[in-house]
What does this fold into?
Amino acid sequence: MKNVVRKRKTHVQKNADDSIDMSLRYAWCIMNLPILVRLDDGNDAADNVNLLLDQEADFIIKRNPRKELPEQWLDFAKYDGRHIEMRVGKDIYLGSIVVQPERFI
It folds into this structure.
């Protein structure tokens, strides 16, 4: 719907909420169907999440674990994921986490 080209040094979140809002308004004007917004982990700010919740758009935001330990995710995957042995000594786990967010403060 809408693309924004920025200089490389410009932070991805700069004016992102305005851009998302405008894109959603355009989309709602031309169709009356559910909208799925996919954002990168640099756009996981509370302002963006609140805007998407307010606009009642479905959204996927790539997860950025930041300071979380990879071992915690491995423990979760082993407990709740699907185990696949690719070959002897190579195990992988598939899974996902669905979060139903409430409005961020």
